[in-house]
Target: Inositol polyphosphate-related phosphatase domain-containing protein
Amino acid sequence: SLALEREEKYVKLLLSDNSRSKVWSAGYLSFALWDSRTKELLKVVNVDGQVDTRFDVLSAQDPYGYETKQNLFSSPKKEKARSPVNFFQRSRNALMGAADAVRRVAAKAGFGDDTRRIEALVMSMDGMIWTGSVNGSVAQWDGSGNRLQEFQHHSSSVQSILNFGTRLWVGYMDGNIQLLDLDGNLLGGWIAHSSPILSMAVGSSYIFTLAGHGGVRGWNLSSPGPADSILRSELTEKEISYKNIEYMKVLVCSWNVGQEKASYESLRAWLKFPTQEVGVVVVGLQEVEMGAGFLAMSAAKETVGLEGSPNGEWWLDAIGQILKGHSFERVGSRQMAGLLTAVWVRTNLKHFVSDIDNAAVACGLGRAIGNKGAVGLRMRIHDRSICFVNCHFAAHMEAVSRRNEDFDHVFRTMTFATPSSGLLTTSSFWFCRSASSSKWIKNA
Model:
């Protein structure tokens, strides 16, 4: 509720409807419609189309409340001209004043979640207003602020919308583009970038898209068109002439180290493999650190996931020294308390690796402490997205239900900082251990 209040105090998006002399000022979960000639507030409406007609709900703490009330109920003929700065200040004040009413309506209707947040606002050539939300939905409004329809063609968050002619171009957080007609029907879509599509613009006969990583690409305005199916069929038939298939083996190693350090000989025996066949080595360790103070600090600040720990760094260095002799380089690692995951790739593969990201889910002590849980590391090699998840769950047969519950919790809640690029070819590797430690030769 407090977070919502803070968000609704700010104007996030502005849209000018010149044909109707109206201005739309949008917060995260509500709109304010203004008459651009008289600068009068016409309507406040939330994202679900519910109207708040009580414009006098400004709180006593609003230093501009008196002025805004005077503006709302005074006659347009007697109103003095105001500067643009004052107009936008009033827009902000109106949203602040409407925030309480919007929250009440949202709470009553169950629409207070962040998935409804507005991220994009555009007007189409037929005068309709279109909004895009975090949950991937696209909504159609008429020029008077009445919500007409909602369409859901993708689950990723909408980041940008552009209208050109009779088409809407919708850019998503996961790098996808979709084309809709002005009735909301899906015409086509494709993967445009490997990061969010922040903005789109028309230039000549192309739509140019700007991605979060700074990349810009151009797309023909006629796409998708009648010739696309013919081209797709021809390309599929000739795929063998332009597509290379690379075979690669992945070595996955898991070890419950029980807060100990292995000898060099034990590590060499553990990581022994045919040098020419393996291209990727993934190591998942459990119980690297298990002290009560260490676990508490990890839960409070999660500094281990960013900076590592002495034991974690020792394992990374020791394994790295062995793999270095086989031309491997580490491309990523992540530690959460006692769990550590790291990936090494062969040197000649490193320039094919991109989009490296990591995530962690705690399952210990009320799912707050990282002595149990999972650490994931995701990356892209060539055109395949690969995710490795190292899990550590409760031991023994009597804990089967608990392990299944924790696995389901990890599967449903593990979220990476950057969205998936939406690649069609993906692989996941899950390697799990219980609390029972393995045996090895210790250092002397």
Observations:
- The chain has two domains: 2-220, 249-433.
- The first strand starts at residue 13 and ends at 17.
